[in-house]
């Protein structure tokens, strides 16, 4: 690995004019995106390969990153998706027997422009106060571009609000993972940025998992005769995904059981008739406390979302779109944000966080069992008629 002090100069520029000088990390060049921070102290490989981070420049709040390198077993998808990467102290050596390459080399191979050696705590505190904002990393020759020109490029970059990024991260054709153990039936998974750990967890519950492109139609879903439908996590603004909302309403109208996570939670909210809004700086990391209102249990959970559902957190309410009673099932304890929805009159529920949670924690893994039980109960109910 190249020494930090031998790399090219780099600068992080935020849209409010804030600048931080450091050294190049990963690929050299220019990248633009929404600057966000992730609070996980481990699992950076899972973060980098999570498609939900497409379009975002991710800052790691943990100061020392890269000591375990990168390996071929833990990726959550086919590539690194972050638009850029910000770390304070990159590891100078790789110290893990499972490592195949260094993080620096992996970033360079996937063309991800990064910056190291800056005060990531200061940037985090600034974002917490001012909110997530557009930014750019300029390294190598690009670091020498006139500062006013760098700022102009940042301010001309698209904002995350209003973006539909599903087509950029979804599979191009259906992919099938066989069920493990006792087979329940076919599960239609709408790939809005699905993670491999999610597919593995669903297959382990007896579902034959059909990962479908994000532009699939309701007739194409019906054609595989699914026992249920699942909406994955993914990047972008839920308000810009009207087609996915319409598709989900078709699923609900067919009476199919539904489970959604992260982006899927927001789209269930919209299908039920609720609104969504952008959070000031979002929830990202693997240490977020959430209350399960049904059990009173507090779970430590993995999050990656910049948008949330707008719904009353107490009591039940009528779905504006006519799907019966609905309640908020989970609430974030840091800021009382809606972290889960449960329909009381139809077989549908969702959570805003990641129950697959590679590389942990696993407090919420029971939700896959809850989904399996919902589907089995629905099949038994149909068989009894």
Question: Which key terms come to mind for this protein?
Answer:
globular; 385 residues; alpha/beta; single chain; Rossmann fold; seven-stranded mixed barrel; Glucose Oxidase, domain 1; 24% helix
Strand % is: 25-35%
Termini separation: 65 Å
Number of domains: 2
According to CATH, the fold-level topology of the largest domain is Rossmann fold
Large-scale geometry: globular
Pathway: Pyrimidine metabolism; UMP biosynthesis via de novo pathway; (S)-dihydroorotate from bicarbonate: step 1/3; Amino-acid biosynthesis; L-arginine biosynthesis; carbamoyl phosphate from bicarbonate: step 1/1
Organism: Microbacterium arthrosphaerae
Catalytic activity: L-glutamine + H2O = L-glutamate + NH4(+); hydrogencarbonate + L-glutamine + 2 ATP + H2O = carbamoyl phosphate + L-glutamate + 2 ADP + phosphate + 2 H(+)
Protein name: Carbamoyl phosphate synthase small chain
Structure report:
It is built from ten helices and 20 strands. It is of the alpha/beta class and 385 residues long. It has two domains: 4-156, Glucose Oxidase, domain 1 (3-Layer(bba) Sandwich), CATH 3.50.30; 166-384, Class I glutamine amidotransferase (GATase) domain (Rossmann fold, 3-Layer(aba) Sandwich), CATH 3.40.50. α8 (242-253) crosses α9 (263-272). The mean pLDDT is 93.
Write the layout of secondary structure elements.
Blueprint: E1 9-14, E2 19-26, E3 30-38, H1 44-48, E4 56-60, E5 64-65, E6 84-86, E7 89-90, H2 103-109, E8 113-116, H3 120-130, E9 133-139, H4 147-156, H5 166-169, E10 175-177, E11 185-190, H6 196-204, E12 207-212, H7 218-223, E13 228-231, H8 242-253, E14 258-261, H9 263-272, E15 275-292, E16 297-310, E17 316-318, E18 325-332, E19 338-343, E20 348-351, H10 366-384
Parallel strand pairs: 3-4, 4-6, 5-7, 6-8, 11-12, 11-13, 13-14, 14-20
Antiparallel strand pairs: 1-2, 1-9, 2-8, 3-9, 10-12, 15-16, 15-18, 17-18, 18-19, 19-20
Helix pairs in contact: 8-9
